[in-house]
Amino acid sequence: MKTTILGYPRIGNQRQLKKICESYWAEKTDKNTLLDVGRSIKKDNWILQKESGIDLIPSNDFSFYDQVLDTCLTFGCIPKRYNNLKQGDKLDLYFAMARGLQKNDHDLTAMEMTKWFDTNYHYIVPEFEKEQTFEFFSSKIVDEYKEALALGIKTKPVLIGPVTFLLLGKEKESNFNKIDLLDRLLPVYCEVINALVDLDVEYIQFDEPCLALNLNNAEREAITYVYEKLHAEFPNLKVFLANYFDCYGENLETALKLPVDTLHLDLVRCTSQLDDILESKLFNPKTKLSLGLVDGRNIWKNNFEASLNFISKASQKLIPENIWISSSCSLLHSPHDLDLEHNETNLPAEVKQWLAFAKQKLEEIATLKGLSSNYKAEYLTLFEENKLANLKRSTSSLIHNQAVKSRVGSLNDTHSQRKSNFTNRQQEQKKVLNLPLFPTTTIGSFPQTKDVRSWRLQLKKGTLSQKEYDALIAKETEKTIRFQEEIGIDVLVHGEYERNDMVEYFGEKLNGFAFSSFGWVQSYGTRCVKPPILFGDVSREHPMTVKWSKYAQSLTELPVKGMLTGPVTILQWSFVRNDQPRVITCNQIALAIRDEVIDLEQNGIHIIQIDEPAIREGLPLRKEEWKNYLNWAVKAFRISASGVKDTTQIHTHMCYSEFNDIIENIANMDADVITIETSRSEMELLDAFVDFKYPNEIGPGVYDIHSPRIPSVEEIEHLLIKAKNVLPKEHIWVNPDCGLKTRDWPETKTALINLVKAAKKLRTEV
Ligand code: GLN
Ligand code: ZN
């Protein structure tokens, strides 16, 4: 048996790549230094894997920005607007495509970005035209193979497969089907493969995670066509075909018939497929199987006992030489190294012993091989340690809280039902809140200036006392309340200055969460996130937001909106426990938020917003699983929102969403008001709500907060009129697209003044 992985994190264990890229972009570092840092990260990763006992090490899994953008460069898939840059330096062209370029006489927009399958990683979306041509443009994959070879390591270059590459892209014209570009693309793939084969490359890993999606026949046929063709062209090449994030599902038959050397299975996301494959008549026992046993998407220690069961099952049908022990997917989605974690307050030793980050996962893979070999005895202590850690986890009092479990167990329909229906609630709320037509509000956060962030840092370092910190936050909050009063906003917010991040803030206050200090995971480009570790039953000891909301409300006669993060978003943006179904964890969070909502109400807060920006990204990859997910996700939101009186108005907020195929479920959340992001699409995203006759109130965003640009009164009015033409006027709210956290004060002030002016103008016109 041999070991391999599908890819390794490339940001560097100290986020070196982030720092050097940002410095290069700011023109504070030269290109050679940047390339040096890249080389040293690759080298460290390769050597680490080698020393950990990985037999077949990937290359070309490194990237200065994104692996899909790398693929675009490899195949010369470069949108025309960058043509002038094609003669120059390829790395600068690459960064211009990733980030746009506004310099000298260039004013180029960046390419779009979207989520990589159901992860929180964002890739650059390839752009295709009908007359799209391809060429072997960047030799990165070849160069990196040589780079590793110079270190004595013969790697397995990783390449996104042609079908997945095409399916990930966007058709920039409407008169063609991108899959038809295959005939033009495949010859260039062959050229690239040729260059690799010339260097004696033995294995190439083709990532085709589109096999985890619902494919149509043409798409499945494309898979067959590609891999038959590659086999015909390169009969000696060993094709390592990687599907991950879900089962092969209805694509299994297609996959089993392919003339490939190895099929990779994600046995974390799809435990049943090993049986399916081994029992299938189509399975050719000469095909190698790569068993993706070690979870690349989460931070829990592997369960060696369970993994060995899979291995022994495979061994009954396959000779050991035909079995790879592997990670479920690329380790790109795991943080780097647990050994760096020494902060006991954030990450207690008891919790730490249950975890494995990327580096530890390499060791796990090697140990699994050891345990399956003739030298088993040397590894038995590690096996026992693993067994003990997992046993301790399953019984730890840190994790298991009987009161929480019983509370979730006794949930019934009344918990997810407001007292009256929306129409009644709307009338009751009108009487109490007394808001004008087209009420104005914001989404929650106000600018998190350098000062605000430095106070938090100083508090952490101990150079500011809690009292001093609180006083500064109070002052900033008051300033924000006064500003909103002055310019005439109707429903105020406190500004969220006390929060570092909308999930981390709640995680820190809830039981059941731990935090790493260096557990960074790439989100896109140089942006990294450090998801909280949700390890145990979730409960709320004390109110989490009442103090600041109550304080803000005490400053003004106008209503101040309470601000919470919803259960699905907290779940979605954390590393979640794998010892119980996600729905149970989500309901535990929902109950904690519900208690907070009730406490806010009892403390005089009459409008409460529960943000759920992550509802859509939680959708499973396969459509047949959507219904189940949407049912429990919507229900969890309703549990959090339904403990209050009819007169209390519940808002929710969602950004970066397409609502078309989930609008019924969004309506079913039954929030009194929903605010959404719509301004960049010129209200296009509103169509789903209009077509569905969305019954409750809605605030379509009229100000794009992602850009420092200030929208004029006329522009905002124009968007509002669009909304007014299609929605009942009594249902419309006026607000920005999202929170103002990343903006600066000067532009925020002017933009909001314009927003209020536009709303007032509209009121006089009805
Ligand atoms: N209330 C949050 C804020 O304004 C919402 C952020 C979000 O939707 N991502 O920052
Ligand atoms: Zn938002």
UniProtKB/TrEMBL annotation:
Binding site for L-homocysteine: 443-445, 496, 611
Catalytic activity: 5-methyltetrahydropteroyltri-L-glutamate + L-homocysteine = tetrahydropteroyltri-L-glutamate + L-methionine
Active site: 706 (proton donor)
Positions annotated to bind Zn(2+): 653, 655, 677, 738
Recorded superkingdom: Bacteria
Note on cofactor: Binds 1 zinc ion per subunit.
Keywords: Amino-acid biosynthesis, Metal-binding, Methionine biosynthesis, Methyltransferase, Repeat, Transferase, Zinc
Sequence positions that bind 5-methyltetrahydropteroyltri-L-glutamate: 115, 527-528, 573, 617
Cobalamin-independent methionine synthase MetE C-terminal/archaeal domain sequence ranges: 438-760
Matching Pfam families: Meth_synt_1, Meth_synt_2
Ranges of residues in domain Cobalamin-independent methionine synthase MetE N-terminal: 3-317
UniProt pathway annotation: Amino-acid biosynthesis; L-methionine biosynthesis via de novo pathway; L-methionine from L-homocysteine (MetE route): step 1/1
Entry's EC annotation: 2.1.1.14
Cofactor(s) listed: Zn(2+)
Binding site for L-methionine: 443-445, 496, 611
Transmembrane regions: none
Family listed: Belongs to the vitamin-B12 independent methionine synthase family.
PANTHER family tied to this protein: 5-METHYLTETRAHYDROPTEROYLTRIGLUTAMATE--HOMOCYSTEINE METHYLTRANSFERASE
Function: Catalyzes the transfer of a methyl group from 5-methyltetrahydrofolate to homocysteine resulting in methionine formation.
Identification of the protein by name: 5-methyltetrahydropteroyltriglutamate--homocysteine methyltransferase
Organism of provenance: Postechiella marina
Name of the coding gene: metE
